[in-house]
Structure formats: structure tokens, C-alpha cells
Amino acid sequence: MMKEFDFKRIPAPLLLWYNTHKRDLPWRENPTPYRVWVSEIMLQQTRVEAVKEYFARFITELPDVFALAVCEEEKLLKLWEGLGYYSRVRNLQKAAKVLVSVYGGEFPRDLAALKDLPGIGSYTAGAIASIAFGLPTPAVDGNVFRVAARLEENPTCIADPKYRQYLEERLSAVYPKSGEACSAFTQSLFELGALLCKPQNPDCAQCPLQDLCRARRNGTQALFPVMPEKKAKRQERVAVFLIETPEGFCIRRREEGVLRGMNELPSALLQDGETPEELLNEWGMYAFKEVARKKYAHIFTHIRWDITCVWVRAESAPFDTYSLEEIEDSISLPTAFKQCLGILKEV
Ligand code: SF4
């Protein structure tokens, strides 16, 4: 049985540390609910450094929920191109439409109402409510789990939903009362996890919570947090085609599988013994000249694609075609396919 940990002791030293150590991040200037929301959704699964540029472009093009709600899908996907997990941006737009139609373009100042919006879970709702509205609502992400699990040497797996609930309750009870401090406390927990309490080699000597931390005292930092077992990724062999015709390169919409609904360079799973040429034949292509081919891998959350990219020239196209400028400037193409375009520069 784990001995109870006194979370009341963490806000004061953590806020003091945060005041002098926080990073200047673009979304921290003028933290409106819209800016906090967009940044938090982008930061899921993506590094801070990579998000900075995307965030600046997104906010310039779509400065508020009204602009987001009416943005054309292709432009929206292009703004997200390279970030992956495209359901995130589709949900952003769905939620923007609800905010416009139900709330007149304002965000509700209420945790339950925020959680009801598409794509907004407990974490994002807590981040918006505390950072933008100054409410005492925790936002428990991977950083916060790591810090808290080490502080109290909590042996519960972070995938257990009861653990999230437990931690949200514990943290809620010790939140500061005033708005500014609520916002700072949420961000101080993120910041500690990102800068000092890192997954490997935490910098405990610099940590403002070192005197309270059981994992530091017992040298057990590497044992916490307890993570779920990693499942092996499914491996698939995929052929991706760069089909060049006098009119341009073929692009089509994916109708099934991973990245369904996104644009792609024509592709298909390769069955055992099947060759890329046979796939082209299935699309009615018999007269073509291979220019080059290369192999690369692309890793999704649960799947690994071993890709054979084949560049062919043909007189006519089995799918819609676009110029290279159009593809680069206005057609969104997920990274798994975009990598294939690199072949053009290598030959
Ligand atoms: S003392 Fe070390 S393990 Fe404990 S919270 Fe601080 S950085 Fe993390």
C-alpha cells in the first residue's frame, strides 16, 4: 500500500521555479482560449520545436474560430501537413463549427462543456480552462504523470483510467485560487516534466521538488511512471507510385485503411510475391517506363510500412493529375507519401 503523498507541498516551490525558468513559447503570449487550444492539440504527439512554425502559420491563416470553422478542407489539411494524426485537425474544425453555431464563437468557461466539444478530452479541457480562464482545473498529460508518479512512487500504470481520475482529484485539491497562478501551475507541471523530470536521466539536482521526491530519495526514477506494455507493430509491404504523365503527377484520395480520406500518391499493399508492376497493370497501366525506385520505412502508431516507391512515366494517367507546384503549394500530402517525392531530387 502506497503511503499518502502530500501534494499540497508542491505548488509553492514549483511556481517559484517556473517564474524564473519558463521558456518563451509563442502560445504563451496572449493565451486566449483559441491559441491555447490550437497549441495543445498540435503539441499532442509532436515536439515543441516542431510545433512553433506550424502554430505561427496556422494562427496567421486562421486567427479565430470563425475562420477555422469555414476553412476549406484542403487548405486545412495543408496547414497540418507533416504533423500527422490528421483526425486532430478535422476535430478542431468540427469543434470550431460547434463553437460558432452554439456559443457564438466564444469558448464556454466550463470544464464539462469544453469536454463535450469534438476532440477535446479531459487533458485539453483542463489546459484551456486553467491556462486561458484561470480555473483550478488540472491538465494531466505524459509530463504530469511522470512528475507525479515519481514524486509519490505511484505503481499504477498510467493507462489505467482510475489513475488519471485519482491524479486529477489530487491536483485539483491543491490548485491555487487566483487565475494567473492557476494558469502558471498547470504550465509549471508541464515545464518541469519537459525540462528537468525527463523520461531518461532526470536532472534532479536542479529540481525544485527534489526534497519532496520519493523517487529521487530512493534512486527509483527509472521505475516510474509505470507504462503500458508496448505492442509489436504490424508490418505491411506497400508500393507507392510516382506516376508522371505529360499533364502532371497522379494524386488520389485514400478510401480505406490508415490515412483514410487523405490524399495519396497511388499506393497499395503488396501481397506475398506480388510486384509493383502487377499493381500498375491492375489500374490498366501497361505502357510505362520505370525511371527509378527506392525503399524506405514509415512508422505509424501501430503499423510499420516498408515502402517501395516506384517512379514511372506514362502517356496517360489512371487518376487525377497535378503539377509539382500544385502538389507542393496547395495539395496536402501525408509524410508517408511526401517522402516518395524525394526520389525526384535523387535521380
Ligand atoms: S526530483 Fe527528479 S524525479 Fe523527482 S520530480 Fe524532480 S526531476 Fe523528477
At a glance:
With 347 residues, the chain is of the alpha+beta class. It is 44% helix and 13% strand.
What does this structure look like?
This protein has 347 residues and is an alpha+beta fold. It has two domains: 7-223, Orthogonal Bundle (Endonuclease III, domain 1), CATH 1.10.340.30; 234-346, Nucleoside Triphosphate Pyrophosphohydrolase (Alpha-Beta Complex), CATH 3.90.79.10. Helices cover 44% and strands 13% of the residues. It contains 16 helices and eight strands. It has helices spanning 11-21, 33-43, 48-61, 65-70, 73-80, 87-103, 111-115, 122-132, 142-152, 161-172, 179-195, 214-218, 276-282, 324-329, 335-341, 343-346; strands at residues 234-245, 248-250, 252-253, 263-264, 267-269, 289-299, 303-313, 321-322. Strands 1, 2, 5, 6, 7 and 8 form a six-stranded mixed β-sheet that branches. Strands 3-4 form a two-stranded antiparallel ribbon. The protein binds iron/sulfur cluster.
Give the overall form: elongated
Radius of gyration: 24 Å
Beta-strand percent range: 5-15%
Major sheet attributes: 6 strands, mixed
Overall tally of structural domains: 2
Main CATH class of the largest domain: Mainly Alpha
Q: At the fourth CATH level, what is the homologous superfamily of the largest domain?
A: Hypothetical protein, domain 2
Count of individual helical segments:
16
Low-confidence stretches: none
* CATH level-two architecture of the largest domain: Orthogonal Bundle
What gap, in angstroms, lies between the N and C termini? 63 Å
CATH topology of the largest domain: Endonuclease III, domain 1
* H and E string: HHHHHHHHHHHHEEEEEHEEEHHH
